[in-house]
Amino acid sequence: MTTTEQATELVLTERHHGVLTITINRPAQKNAINREVAVQLASALDLLDADPPLSVGVLTGAGGTFSAGMDLKAFAKGETPILPGRGFGGLTQAVVRKPLIAAVEGWALGGGFEMALACDLIVAADTAKFGLTEVKRGLIAGEGGVIRLPQRLPYHVAVKVLLTGEPISAVDADKYGLISELAPSGGALTAAHELAQRVAVNAPLALAKVKQVLRETQGLNDAEAFKRQAENASDLLNSEDAHEGALAFAEKRAPVWRGR
Fold first, then answer.
1. Which pTM does this prediction carry?
2. Does 256 map to a domain?
3. Which of 5, 79, 105, 114 is catalytic?
4. Which has the closest alpha carbon to 88: 137, 146, 47, 135?
5. Which partner for 129 in 70, 85, 114, 167 could form a disulfide, CB atoms 3.0-4.6 Å apart?
């Protein structure tokens, strides 16, 4: 059974079979992010990490748009959607322990694109578009765009996006490997939920350790990376879940994870 929680009208959360769907709910503003949205997004992400029955998060936007990025009207009044220690939208610099999937319809612009890049997986409609237009406003994509995009796209493709401020289609982004799964128009959230369920059946401790090792070993040489991995993940071998995984395999049944 699905239960829906509504903290306020700006950010909606919905739980279903271990998946927490987080929806930015400002469709009239193309889900532009102001400070209050950032605060509520941060709270939703904290809920995802703190609640043991939740294994995976899905981040999306209401009304057929992922997010147009920063609410410039709010910014002009002195607001900032960049939270200390957490970044734009409470996400771009945050450490989210559990897997997070972006479900993108329509536009993901500026900080909206950077929030998608901060997710572990991106599911996008084939009509979606991504853009980092900051150079057109005298700025840089400083909440992960300049840093992460060249890690996810071929270098010269990424730099073209960053220097021109021109968008890249989901179809082209998929061709270059940025998109985890491409869905038909209107189908991104459904496809993201299907992917989330395929992730959620796995051991929660192992999922969290995969994310931790990924975070801490990017850019290291092999020797340093293996050392850091051993420091962070060796305790999995003695976990109850690892024993349960082996036992379930031997007994030809689905494992029952305890998260310990």
1. 0.91
2. no
3. 114
4. 146
5. 167
